[in-house]
Amino acid sequence: MTPRRPALLIGLVCIAHVATLMGVFAFPALLPTFLAAWSLSNTEAGWISGIPLAANAITVSILVSLTDRIDARLIFGGGAVLAALSLAGFALFADGFWSALAFRAIGGVGMAATYMPGLRVLVDRYKGDTQSRAVALYTASFSLGTALSFLVSGEVGGAFGWQAAFWVSSAAALVSAALILPLDGIVPQRPDNPGSVLDIRPVLRNRAAMAYVLAYAAHGWELFALRAWMVAFLVFSLTLQPGGAGWPAPTVLATLGAIVAMICSIAGNEWAERYGRRRMVVVYMLSAACLAMVIGFLPGLPYPVVAALILIYCGLVQLDSASLTAGAVQAAEPGRRGATLGVHSFIGFAGSAIAPLAVGIVLDATGGGHSVASWGAGFIAMGAVCLVAPFAFLLGRDKSTVRL
C-alpha cells in the first residue's frame, strides 16, 4: 500500500534507496585492507572500485527506459535482490582481483535497477506541490547511503572481518526490496509516439535535458573518484603526521563527508531554485574543481586541517547533484521521463566508472600514491573534468535562453 501523505512516501522510498547503497562503497571503505591482503596495484583497485559504475552505465539506459512501460517498483525490487546476491557472493567467494571484479559488476547491474528506477517510483506516486524538492531529497539520500556504507563497512569490517561487512550489506538490500514491492501498482504514462524502448534519439535532441546530462557526467567523475580514493588519501596523510595518528579515522571522516554532502545537495538545490539552476550549477562545479587542484598537494598539513579540507571538498562536490537530476527531470518531454533518466544515468555513470580507474592509473604513473606529488596529480585528475560545465550549458541553450 502506498502512503497517502507525500512526506511518508518520500521517507519510505529514500530509506529503501539508502538500504540498496549499503554495499556500494564497502570496497572503497576497506580499500587498505584489500590492497594489502590481495597485493593489488592502484590500477587494479581502481578497476574494482569503478566496475559497478561501468556495469551500471551499460545496463541503466535499458532498465530505466523500461519504467516508461513497466511499473518501476518491479524493476527496483528485482535490482535489490540482485544486489543482495552479489554482496553475498562477494563475501563467500571473492579472493582476488578477478572474482572481486565479477561480483562488483553484478552489483552494478543491481544499482542500475534501483537508483533511477527508485526515483521513478517516487515521482510517479508523488502528489506534492514541489517535485524538485522531492527529487532533491531522494538524490541527497544517495549521500546518506554512502555515509552508512562507509561507516558500517568500516566498523563491521574492522571488528568482524571484511566478509561480515558484505553480509550486512546484503541483508540491507533485501530489506529495501521488502519496502518497495508492496507499494500500489501504477500504469506509467506513455509518450504520444512511443517507438522502441531503446530509441533515445528524442532525448538526444532535447538540448535542455542534454546540458544537464553532460554536466552530470562531469559531476559523477569527480564524486566517485573522490569516494573511491578518499580513505586511501587520508591513510597516506596519517603516515605523514607526527606519531601517525589522528581523529577522526579515515572511514569515519568519509562518513562525515557523505553526511555533509547530503546536506549540501539539498541546500544546493534550494539555492538553485532561488538564484537560477544553470548559473548556480556552474558556480558549484568550478568551485569544486578549483579546490581539487590544490587539496592533493596538502596531505602533509596537520591532520585536522586535512580533514576540514576534505569535508569542504565533499560539500562542494555534492552541491550540484540534486540540481542536475531535478533539471533533467523537468526538461524531459512528457512520456519520456524514464528514457531521459536512462540517458542521464548512462552518460553520468560512464564518467563515474572511468574516474576511479583514471585516478588509479595517474597514481601508479606518478609514484604509486607514495608521495605528495602523486596525490596532487591524482586530485587534479578528479577535479579538472568539472571545468566543462560552462560549455555544457552553453551548448544546451535554446533560442529562448539568454543567460545561464
What do these coordinates show?
With 404 residues, the protein is mainly alpha-helical. The chain has a single domain, classed as Growth Hormone, Chain: A, CATH 1.20.1250.20. The protein is built from 18 helices and no strands.
In summary, what is this structure?
With 404 residues, the protein is mostly helical.
Going by helix content, strand content and strand pairing, the class is: mainly alpha
For the biggest sheet, the summary is: none
Number of domains: 1
Low-confidence stretches: 398-404
Gross geometry:
globular
Return the average pLDDT rounded to an integer: 86
Instruction: Name the CATH superfamily classification.
Output: MFS general substrate transporter like domains
Rg calc: 20 Å
Oligomerization:
single chain
Overall number of strands: 0
- The CATH topology: Growth Hormone, Chain: A
Spell out the helices and strands N to C.
HHHHHHHHHHHHHHHHHH
The proportion of strand residues reads under 5%
The end-to-end distance, rounded to whole angstroms, is 42 Å
For the record, the CATH architecture stands as Up-down Bundle
Helix share, percent: over 70%
